[in-house]
Amino acid sequence: MPPILTLTDIRKSFGGARALERASLELSRGSVTALLGENGAGKSTLVKILSGIHQPDGGEIRFEGAAIRIGNPEDARRLGLGVVHQECLSFDNLSVAENLFVHALLVRRGRVDWRALRARATAVLRDLDADFSADLPAGRLSIAQKHVMQIARALVHESRVLILDEPTASLSQRECAELFRIVRKLRDAGCALLFISHKFDEVFELADRYAVFRDGLAVGAGAMQDVSRDELVRLMVGRSVEQLFPTLPENPGEELLRVAGLARAGEFEDVSFTLRRGEILGIYGLVGAGRTELAQVLFGLQPADRGTVTLSAAARAAGIALVPEDRQTQGGILPFSIAANIALPNLRALAPRGWCDARRESALAREWIDKLAIRAQGPQQTVHSLSGGNQQKVVIAKWLAHKPGVLILDEPTKGIDVGAKAAVHAVTSEYARAGSGVIMISSDLPEILGMSDRVLVMRRGRLRGEFTRAQASSEALLRAASDA
Q1: Residue 444 — very low, low, confident or very high, per pLDDT cuts 50/70/90?
Q2: What pTM, to 2 d.p., does this model score?
Q3: CA nearest neighbour of 337 among 256, 413, 415, 391
Q4: CA end-to-end span of the chain, whole Å?
């Protein structure tokens, strides 16, 4: 079918930084198009242009063949352009029905027609086979249900183009499957969908077509059936990534950490394991397995109810560091600069006499900007102005610079692109092989299998299996993580 939405040579700059340059895209009815690209490729800028938040500096947007200008979010809604954001936007104290119509209440004779509003909301939720009521307060919904609510909000405004911006980043496998069922239903009803994701398995499962951006340019597009994973990677990063997971010789040394019978009521029970020098220990499990809660206890954020944690003298002197799953609220101070964030755990070295040496601080930041290929204008750029993947690199950099004896990484590559993942994997491996111990918590099976010397599997707060690199497989880990 002819495209319903066409973007041609879209350009956008912020100050002296180019975000989009000759970016083009076509979306058709009844089709899911995957938009791929590294963090900083221009995907988020494009979404904001389609949402009416930003105005392009040049280029053309055509909707149903006619040139248009999307001056503000209301223009986007009126045209039928809806967005489902990664961060669920909702008024938690209002009902689902009120959330659906918050931008356009149904009014009759000067008053809100609550009966009609609720009936329309109920009908849309029924069409989506949603498992929650229109009367339920939005604050009681799960993250997955809030994504469905965002889709329903777009439908009550009769959106003909729906943009899904990293909707699965915080969802379990079951929740992803339910979301994909709804997306397919919308596609089959004639909706044009733009699906943004860093997860190749999702892209190949859901998308009909693909478009790839790199450094603000459109560098490739076509049918999913005509492209391979390796070809998409080459388009995204501009080079061949033959090996995302570095293979370095396994040479575990002395024991750094011993955990025995560790428990925290209601979260995990009877967890025991060891970590050796030079080892990457993977911890895999589904949502709710207790992995993050275990990491928080090991780091000292939460107390344990029972059990012991024993560190070797060397590990005790160097300390334990935690890169948390939530980089924005727990990992970094977003209004601070890159240099200030990296300096925070390292003030003893940077300020030996109580005053922080600005030159040392800047030099340390530049070192890690180079090591992790952080895309930034310099050490003084604020973290909140970086893309999500580069924010994650800053959070990792500040702890790697601290040189802890034990480094805990909780979902270290969640929501970042393939090139950024390769950089994180490389520096993590180098760090472990230099003599520290790494605990990597991840829901990404290829990452766990590719990075770990050993893998522990948690289910419902208990350890359900331990696998060597030779024993570990996708099937074995999933079986241990999901068996009743």
Answers
A1: confident
A2: 0.62
A3: 391
A4: 46
Mark 441-472 as b/e (b = at least 16 C-beta within 10 Å).
bbbbbebbbbbbbbbbbbbebebbbebeeeeb
Q: Which residue has the tokens 């090991």?
A: 298
Helix (H, G, I), strand (E, B) or coil at 129: coil
Our separate counts of H helices and E strands in the chain read: 17, 21
Has residue 106 got a pLDDT over 50? yes
pLDDT tens digits along 61-102: 999 989 999 999 889 988 889 888 777 778 888 888 888 887
Tokens 């969640």 belong to 414
Rg of the Cα atoms in the chain: 24
Phi and psi at 407, nearest 5°, equal -115, 125
Quick one: tokens of 405? 């004896």
Closest CA to 76 of 58, 107, 93, 55: 55
As given in the structure block, the two tokens for residue 18 are 């180019």
For residue 127, the 8-state DSSP code is H
pLDDT higher than threshold 60 for residue 483: no
Q: How far apart are CA 291 and CA 441, in angstroms?
A: 7
Residue 301: Cβ within 10 Å count: 12
CA distances to 147, 169, 176, 352 from 326, in Å: 19, 11, 20, 31
Token representation of residue 250: 């396994």
Amino acid at 440: M
Spatial contact of 39 and 376, defined as CB atoms under 8 Å apart: no
Residues contacting residue 359 through CB under 8 Å, at least 6 positions apart: none
If you write DSSP's letter for every residue of 295-360 in order, what string do you get?
Answer: HHHHHTSS--SEEEEEE-HHHHHH-EEEE-S-IIIII--TTSBHHHHHHGGGHHHH-TTSS--HHH
Q: Compute the residue count for the chain.
A: 484
DSSP one-letter code for 29: T
pLDDT at 484: 40
As a whole number of angstroms, the distance between CA 422 and CA 240 comes to 12
Cα(358)–Cα(286) distance, integer angstroms: 43
Count other C-beta atoms under 10 Å from residue 238's C-beta: 11
Residue in 434, 454, 452 with CA at minimum distance from that of residue 371: 434
Contact of 294 with 271, CB cutoff 8 Å: yes
Closest by CA position to 81, among listed 92, 94, 70 = 70
Q: What is the DSSP string of 73-96?
A: HHHHHHHTEEEE-SS----TTSBH
d(CA 294, CA 320): 14
